[in-house]
Amino acid sequence: ALAPRRGWVFLGLDQRLAAAPAVVSIAPPARPYAAAAKTAKKGSQKTKQEEKKKKQGSRRWPLMSKPVDDVYLTWYYERPSYDVEEAVGMLKKFQELDFTYPKQYVYINVFLDMALQKKKKVDPFSSSVLLPYRFTDEMNKVLVFTENEEEAEIARENGAAVVGGVELIKWILEDEIQADFYVAVPAIMPKLIPLRNKLRRKYPSTKRNSLGHDIPKMLQLFREGLEYMVQDERVIKTRIARV
């Protein structure tokens, strides 16, 4: 809208604006629902071009040369990789520079190839491994199932936390007795079926090396061993040492 002001050059504009009839603008009626836009058919030429543009826009090519200093855009360069000895040496150096705890744990991420033939995959699993060098004084609590007195004595001598037979089933079901791992001899397995749902993956099994006749070997594995588990379908994240 024009508001006439005094001092304009156009003479008589005040009179013409005053004499002009008022114009009332009527807004178009509101549409409560907008018409849905036509979606492009799957596989159409337009959709393919849009997907191609998105891929081209998000792609970043690493540069051939290495950065000249320690301030740079990381996505322009390939991520550096080091062998184990060099990486551990760097951790020790960083520990001294950062004044962090000298006995802190060293963690590792292991990426597994879980693919099988005919588009099948290995199911995520957990297991234990006996490392050549122990880095912690912690001992796992292991329960041994056996009804043989000689085997029970061997289990006690090798550090078993709890040793017993079917009398332990009731206490385990009621959570009166708990352990980190459970091992057993084959003779008692038919009597331990009530514990299958309770113990689940900790139920004694030959696949997990928790079922057998060599009680000292099983106790050493599960008392001193490191338990690891496959996460996110193919990744093992665990600690393996101290700095």
From TrEMBL:
Its main location: mitochondrion. GO terms for cellular component: mitochondrial inner membrane; ribonucleoprotein complex; ribosome. It comes from the Eukaryota. It is found in: Mitochondrion. Keywords: Mitochondrion, Ribonucleoprotein, Ribosomal protein, Transit peptide. It holds the Pfam family Ribosomal_L1. Belongs to the universal ribosomal protein uL1 family. This is Large ribosomal subunit protein uL1m. It comes from Nycticryphes semicollaris.
